[in-house]
Amino acid sequence: MSKVRILTEENHSVFNQFVAEIRDVNIQKDRLRFRRNLERTGELFAYEISKELSFEEKEITTPLGVSNEQLIKDQPILVTILRAGLPLHQGLLNYFDQADNGYISAYRKHHKDGTFDIELEYLACPSIEGRTVILSDPMLASGASMVLSYKALLAKGKPKHCHIVSLIGSAEGLEYAKKNLPENSTIWLGALDQEMTAQSYIVPGLGDAGDLAFGTKE
After folding, report:
1. Which residues contact 162 (CB under 8 A, 6 or more apart)?
2. Alpha-carbon distance 188 to 166, whole Å?
3. What is the pLDDT of residue 129?
4. Which of 18, 32, 50, 51 gives a 20 to 30 Å CA spacing to 216?
5. What CA dihedral angle connects 218, 148, 88 and 125, to 10 degrees?
6. Which of 35-39, 107-111, 141-145 has the lowest mean pLDDT?
7. Strand 100-110 relative to strand 116-124, pairing
8. DSSP category for residue 128
9. Looking at residue 22, which CATH number applies to its domain?
10. What is the pLDDT of residue 106?
């Protein structure tokens, strides 16, 4: 079963402030600030995940001599689910700035009876064989899109480890992801909410992250 880390519950930090602003219906009216706050949380996720990576010593030449430094041995592959995941992905990329990148198009195909299926239409990603993958999406609601996206990635190889990153998750979605993702994975959440509507929207959540970041869609 996957390991779980929930940042707002571990140690209170500026991360809590960013989550509060992202949730705030008044601050959400500023799309630039909403996107930037998502980006900031991605940067903090990246910092925490970096502690789990392998490092190696390298000699760095300075103007006055040589310094032995511990540097990341292998850069991860950053994969996000379009379109809502883009600001969070950018935050991760700001810190893992030499990483390879992948993109998955996934969306909810709604039916007249109120149910929906998750449709995956597009995958662009390098080989993940033996690599560390960071798969991000702002919301882990039912968990279905994240699990399907991970399974789609397996067409590109078997990763050494997969870090699943979501700003907010539901208790139900977290349990689903834990049961359906492999042991060599870690689920990183900013916050965990206990409720979810019949339409699989997290409560209190933050609303539709994609619409808030980029505008409504038809």
Report:
1. 132, 133, 134, 135, 150, 181, 182, 184, 185, 186
2. 6
3. 97
4. 18
5. -100
6. 107-111
7. antiparallel
8. -
9. 3.40.50.2020
10. 76
Domain that holds residue 67: 3-214
The residue among 165, 199, 153, 146 whose CA lies nearest residue 41 is: 165
pTM of the prediction?
A: 0.92
Q: How many domains does the structure of the chain reveal? A: 1
Q: So what's the pLDDT on residue 119?
A: 75
What are 195's strand-pairing partners? 203
Q: What is the pLDDT of residues 10-68, one digit of tens each?
A: 889 999 999 999 999 999 999 999 999 999 999 999 999 999 999 999 999 999 999 99
**What's the token pair of residue 141?**
């609601």
Q: Which long-range CB contacts under 8 A does 74-78 form with residues at least 24 apart?
A: 74/131, 74/132, 75/99, 75/100, 76/49, 76/131, 76/132, 76/133, 76/134, 76/163, 77/101, 77/102, 77/125, 77/126, 77/128, 77/131, 77/132, 77/133, 77/134, 77/159, 78/102, 78/134, 78/136
